[in-house]
Amino acid sequence: MAFVTNNSSKSRNTYVRKFSDLGFEHIEKSAIYPTCYSAALVIKEQLKIPPQSKVWVFGDEGIEQELKECGYIPCGGSDPSLDSEWDPDSPILKIDQEVKAVVVGSTKKLNYMRLATTVQYLLVDEKSIPFIGANIDTTYPGPKGMILPAGGPMVNLMSYTCGRDFINVGKPSGLLLNTILQDQKFDRERTLMVGDTMYTDIKFGNDGKLGGKNGGTLLVLSGGSKLGDLKNIEDKSTEPQYYIESLGHLFDLLK
C-alpha cells in the first residue's frame, strides 16, 4: 500500500508523525508520496540538476524539507523577508543566478512580495529555468465544512502570469505513478487507486491503466467529488470503475 497526496505543504516525515498520532505506527516513510517529495525527485532524476544547487520555492516548509533531503538548497519559501509589505527595492527581488529551478505549491502565506519575486525567476533568461507545479487541485475540504483554495490556483496563476507551462508532479501525472509502481514493485494490473476527487485521483488511475481490463479506480464520496458529479461526466478519463460512500464502507466489505 502507498499513500499519495497532492498536498505539498507537508513532508514525508511530517506524515509519518501524523499517521503515528492517529494510531497507524506501522506506516513507513518509503510508502508516502506527497508532491513536495515528487518535485524533489523530478529535479534530481529527470532534470538531472546537480546536488547543492539552489531551488526557488513558492510554497510551504514541506517543499523545503524534501529538497534538503535530496541535497538541494531551497530559497524563498519560508524566508521571513517574503512576509514583508511590497517593496520594489527589497534585496530579495534581486535574482540569484545560482537558482536552477522553481517549485510552486500551496501556501497560506500568499502575498504580493512572494508573487513578484517568483515571477522574476520564471521570466529570467528567456523563461529557461524549469518550472515545477506541485499540483492542479483547485480546492480541498477544510475545517468546519469550508472549501478552501488548494495549490492549483497558485500554480496556474504563475503559469498564466508568465505565459509558461509547468511540469506537473502531482496526480494525475504519469511521472508520479510510474515512480510509485517502480519503487513499490506494484503490479499495474492488480493495483487499485482509491481517492475522493475525480479529476486528479480517478484520472491518475485511469490514465495509468491501473487494474487492467477490470479497471482499478475507486471513488470515495466523502471528499472532493460527490454522487451528483457521477451523473455529469464529460471526460471519461475521470470516471471511476467503482464508487463507495466512505472508506468505512470499504472496510466492511473486506471483512
Automatic annotation (TrEMBL):
Catalysed conversion reaction: 4-nitrophenyl phosphate + H2O = 4-nitrophenol + phosphate + H(+)
Pfam families registered for this protein in UniProt: Hydrolase_6, Hydrolase_like
Question: Which keywords annotate this record?
Answer: Hydrolase, Magnesium, Metal-binding
Q: Which domain of life is it from?
A: Eukaryota
Does the record carry Cell division as a key word? no
**Could you say which residues bind substrate here?**
171
- Please provide the Gene Ontology terms (biological process) for this protein: carbohydrate metabolic process
What's this protein's name? Answer: 4-nitrophenylphosphatase
Q: Which EC number(s) are documented for this chain?
A: 3.1.3.41
Record text on cofactor binding: Divalent metal ions. Mg(2+) is the most effective.
- According to its record, what are the GO cellular component terms? cytoplasm
For this UniProt entry, the molecular function terms from Gene Ontology, in alphabetical order, are: alkaline phosphatase activity; metal ion binding; phosphoglycolate phosphatase activity; phosphoprotein phosphatase activity
Principal EC category: hydrolase
Spell out the InterPro entries in the cross-references.
HAD-like_sf (IPR036412), HAD-SF_hydro_IIA (IPR006357), HAD_sf (IPR023214)
Q: Which residues bind Mg(2+)?
A: 196
**Lineage of source species:** Eukaryota, Fungi, Dikarya, Ascomycota, Saccharomycotina
Required co-factor? Mg(2+)
